[in-house]
Amino acid sequence: MIVISLALILVAVALLVLGLAGGSSLLLVVSIGASLLAAVALVAGARQAAAARSTTQRDPAGGPSVTIPAQHVPPTTNAGASGWRQPPGSPAGAAPGTNAGTAEAYDDEPAAQEVTPEQAVLVSRLSDEVRVVDGRPRYHLDECAHLVGRDHEPLPVAEAVELGFTPCANCAPDTTLLSQSGRR
């Protein structure tokens, strides 16, 4: 329909030019009629295109397709607020490239547990709690020796992964959580 509309517009312009050049009122009236038909064809084509789009965006069950936008969850890195957790790396508010307040490398920090990408995805979907120490890069099981004498707090493992914490190699939380969930 859009192609027909474009052709009618060309015809209307040609008739308008001929009508003006020859002084013919009939050609001018026909030019106006062709313009109106072009507008009708354009509207009909736009409606057909919209109908085609709506039928192709339906789900397999026949209902309308619904796109759910991703939910934005603000990070919990507000200094001074209760429940504040400092994810590993530069803290909020530190200028890029400065060392002021950044998590320093600790000699006693355990290595990260090595996990496959598939295991990491499975763990990121779990709701089990792990323990984190503010400013340290690892998450741990409650009974991890690394937590002794350190302030730590519980955190769902999915949130710990989202904040950038990695599993402790000493207590191997990913292996334990996956075996408890039966998803090894």
Outline the low-pLDDT stretches. Answer: 90-103
Mean pLDDT: 78
Strands of the widest sheet, in order across it, are: 3-1-2-4
Distance N to C terminus? 57 Å
The gross shape turns out to be rod-shaped
Record field, number of beta strands = 4
Instruction: Report strand %.
Output: 5-15%
* Biggest β-sheet description: 4 strands, mixed
**Cα radius of gyration in angstroms:** 33 Å
Which structural class do you get from the secondary structure elements? Answer: alpha+beta
Fraction of helical residues: 40-55%
Strand-and-helix sequence, N→C? Answer: HHHEEEHEH
Figure out the total of helices: 5
Biased composition (Low complexity): 91-104
Region (Disordered): 54-115
Describe this structure in words.
Residues 54-115 are annotated as: Disordered. Residues 91-104 have a biased composition (Low complexity). The radius of gyration is 33 Å and the shape is rod-shaped. The two termini are 57 Å apart. The protein has helices at 2-22, 25-56, 117-124, 157-162, 173-181; strands spanning 129-132, 138-140, 153-156, 166-167. It contains 5 helices and 4 strands. Helix 1 packs antiparallel against helix 2. Strand 1 and strand 2 (138-140) form a beta hairpin.
